[in-house]
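yo

u said u wanted the structure for the complex thing, so here. seqs first:
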Amino acid sequence: MITDARENLPEVLEAEVAIAGGGPAGIVLALELAERGRKVLLIEGGGRNSPEGGMSLYQNTTSGRSYPLTGSRLRWLGGTTNHWGGWVRPFDERDFSDEPTGEMPGWPIGAGELGGWYRKAADWCEVGSDKYDPERIGLEDRARLLDLTDTGFRHRIFRFSPPTRFGTRYREALEQTDKVDCRVNLNLVDLEQSDSRVRRARAVTLDGKACTVRADHFVIAMGGVENARFLLDQEVVPGNQSDLVGRCFMDHFGFTPGLMLAAEGLQYERGQIPGEDLMTVMAPEPGTEGPNSCVLVQATAPDDVLPPAYWTNPAIGGDSAGHYSLSMINAPTPHPESRITLTEERDALGMRRPNLHWHLPSTEFRPVIALFERWMDALSARNQARIKWNRKDAPGPDDFVGVGYHHMGTTRMSSSPDHGVVNPDGRVWDRDNLYIAGSSVYPAAGFSNPTLTIVALASRMAEHLHRQLEG
Amino acid sequence: MRRRTLLQTAGLSFVGLQLGLLSGCGRDSAPELATPPSDPGAREALRELAGRLNGIEFVGPVCATEIGEAEPLEALLQQLRDTPETTLEAALLTRIASDFANGERLDIAGWQLSRTECLLLAAGAHEQGMSEPRRTEQGELQFQQFAEIERWGPEETIEGRIFNPIGNGRGGFWIRVAEPVPGSTRLMLDGVLLATHFEPGVVTASLEPDYMDEVIAKPGMYPLLMVDTARNIAQRVGYLTVRPRPPAATLADGSQSAVFCQVERWGPDHANQGQAFNEQPDGGAAFWVRIGCAPRNARLRLNGRPLPTTVSTSLVTARVPHYAELEPGDYVLDIHDPDSGETLQVGTFRVN
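structre next:
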């Protein structure tokens, strides 16, 4: 059942699990718990639909490298899936096992921990297949791709969700289940805490109504920025024993190194392979030095210095050719100084507004550029392509860098309270009944888009909470 | 018409390159390259290859300058003879691979070529009498059908209204195609290439917010082309029509609506009890309202009861699931926008 809290709000709302945030994590968690017979309260700060008039509660400031934060957050049912492009892929094994560069540790769980949950996430995200291994689907036999044998690189796959707008797609399910009490236009603002637990919480509407929320477990699933903002705004900040709440903000950043001349008609882009909705990229094999970034290939207009005819020459290409623009999606490094802090300005709910200081130093591009050079030399040596290398230098500190709108890392998961905010179950280290869901728990992020993993982790958390409630 | 002329001109003047260079290019076996490097005929075989190298108008002369060899062919032959390979082709491939592996690259206007490769190109420039680098000439966009378009949209919008909105001020087109189109395909609106995306059976393209604002601010007809940028060919898709915004509607309290335009006509305004009016293919009943503009979340209501409504550019339709239950009498038909809260009276529907 979905209720507009401005129209109907009792003094007390009670559930076994109270979830704040109606994005993909919150919705999946709520519905999976409901399936297991649990009584759930799902609180969404926005309404059922786009507010059309902007989302003043999300106004913020930024410092450090320029970052388009305001436009990348959406505050209504479904959250940022309302402008999601639908790209999905699980993290690679090396994303879980590699230690990120920098001073912070990586994932405390292995890839195998999420295997089954990824399959479930594919269903939630309405992805036609959960197969991401090119060999398993015989991709290199079916598609015209570069030969990467002995190059140290391999083909990887992105698949696509329709994209699922979670607020729209699962609205009927939320309406129909009597296990989920979904309240829209209701904002969680305060946690009343003891040393080890959340006793209760307070939620308010923008028109001044308020209620007390009681639950066995509380889950904060407000988004990669808002999760940290909410925790930081509490009188006692949960999980902040190591001063890491809000720190290590990450996003996948882009780099466009150049152009490629290679065989005509390569099928890397989406929509090129009949019967398969996928996109193919190139990424380093395990053991290849450098970050787990990927190279994307997109056919483009011919270059006037090295025309397609050049590739027809024997001993060079010997084939008809095309030009392709190259871009990279890059694995970010968790820098503690890249962080969400709170300003003194307050929003209409009385909560302090966030400032994002995005720390993406120019040095972070060095391993990316080195990786690209490695890839370029490997392909050129195998006579697979010639590369126009337009950008050999890192962007300056004031240059705009493309981002994925993927807000990650601000309540990182860790194997010890010294290095994170939540434990491997997503529970805040110093609270027995407070959990964080969403990409804010990622300690490392490879080049995969975050949504599939958000959903997989939410499914996994539903099972964990169910078992906790069973005692 | 002014716009149409302008647009066609803009479309045709799109920078196009290299038409025809891709055609008929199969893998070249180059029999002369089977010659062993040590063979007395190797020099002539290499000269023959250099003399017919393609696409070196720029890189050939630049390589000649960069390498600075007076006799590049001789220098190249010597290098190939230093390899253990038994054919010129294998020797060339080995040397090129070795160059890239060892960082022996030359940067020619950004293109990373192997030193050996550049030596060959220098020889080619020499053999072909090229002394000054020359960029490949631009050609004009040619019109040729290359995709089978099944349908596309949207074909029209109203002044000031983002068409097919996808959020953040963006909107765009969709084109359903029977077969995959080349990845180098872009949609072009009024001479401007759009960010184009591919899904199975569908090509979509979006306008940046600034460009969207520019287009919807000016009523007119904007030509939409599908362009294969690799082959510099274009196919006409159709025209996007931006219609002038009709006058605003007057609400019941006499104020002007901020979201609704005037209702032009609507129907049906009466029906017999139990009869499916404006009968639909499935036997159901429906209203239609021809209106200058209406918000996409607007809903038709009959005596306050919301009806399943579809809003398109200038037409609002709604099915009436409960038509068979309507008793004789007059019913108020209005249209309500939940976002602005405005309600516009459409008329009175009578059941006889």
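The longest helix of chain B spans residues 88-101. Confidence is low (pLDDT under 50) at residues 1-27 of chain B.
cya
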